[in-house]
Design goal:
Keywords: Membrane, Transmembrane, Transmembrane helix. By secondary structure, this protein is mainly alpha-helical. The protein has helices spanning about 1-25, 30-50. Helix 1 (about 1-25) runs antiparallel to helix 2. The termini are close together.
Length: about 55
């Protein structure tokens, strides 16, 4: 469970931060709602990982 939360958190945060750069490079509009959602989901995964680190 720790590895899954860690992988999900890091992947979602990285994708949320790099996606606007990729979209602007391709001259497409940036889907801000999707990026904010990915950022919040990644932050929540890491929050759960830190808060419940003894139980996992």
């Amino acid at each position: 469970m720790k590895k899954l939360l860690s992988f999900a958190g890091v992947s979602l945060l990285t994708t949320a931060l790099l996606d606007p750069m990729l979209q602007s490079t391709l001259d497409k509009p940036v889907p801000w709602l999707r990026d904010i959602g990915m950022f919040l989901a990644g932050a929540f995964c890491l929050y759960i990982l830190v808060k419940y680190h003894r139980e996992l």
